[in-house]
Amino acid sequence: MPTYLVTGGAGFIGSALVRQLIAEGEDHVVTLDKLTYAGNLESLAEALHHPRHHFVRADICDAATLRDVFTESRPDGVFHLAAESHVDRSIDGPGDFIRTNLVGTYTLLQESLRYWRTLAPAAAAAFRFVHVSTDEVFGSLAADGHFTESTPYDPSSPYSASKAGADHLARAWQRTYGLPLLVTNCSNNYGPYHFPEKLIPLTIQKALVGEPLPVYGRGENIRDWLHVDDHARALRLVLARGVPGRTYNIGGGNERRNIDVVRRICALLDERHPDPAGPHERLITFVADRPGHDLRYAIDATRVRSELGWQPREDFDAGLRRTVDWYLAHQEWVSRIATGAYRGERLGLGVPS
Hints:
Helices cover 41% and strands 16% of the residues. It is α/β, with parallel strands linked by helices. It is globular, with a radius of gyration of 20 Å.
């Protein structure tokens, strides 16, 4: 059975991919994660101690450890998801984003290339490296149109700029050295095990304790929402069927204004966890917008649908309902990861750390 190395596998999207690989196939998985504030072994759930799973705590900037992992595990493919990913944190402290997203990606590419060159011809031909990125590298859309694989890059934040740079490095290693690599750019993910600093889990958690629900500007910013399990299925198809050198945009086709997402969460909590003080929507508080806040993202996922046969399974409204239910049922998980690294405070005010 094949072995896959998943970097960032204890994070939100990475853990969903690892859980899926272990639950739905016979693959062996090596999860590599530094376990920063957003990485948590509990997110791996039943996959963590599965006999086909092995966890390595390591930094992707550590070339020697990466070399050892490749030598020992002999992976047939790499899913690269390790990244600093929170826009607001990148505004306050861009250095970590440059180090992990750029230097870390470079280091992983180098060690992957070194390993790939040692493989026998058949194994080298079958090897794949999937570099997972974001639609934020494209910048902001107007009221119409969608991001395609040929949309020019126009990043607005230190986070998106660091991911754009990583994407360029990945493509260069494919074109210059022949590393069989594919790039994916996804829209906003949601679902279980999401660290509560992003819009949906943060709104749920603040609403449950009766705190103000901060909405940037007037909440008019639009995002295209993708369930994390649908994203994981797409990544598996990209590795299995994708063409090296190609880019695949992955989006759920669920455009929603931020304010509408927050209001929907409030309505769901009114049903499932009523607040004696009144409807949760009363907690919505409009706050100053963050610097460089892109207005709209929307993905054209035609290529991954038509070429690879991927289709999202999760309807956004039903998926959001299940996500709210998951957080209500897993408050102990939320409490355990609230170690002090993040307490729901406002980030992204433009004051570098």
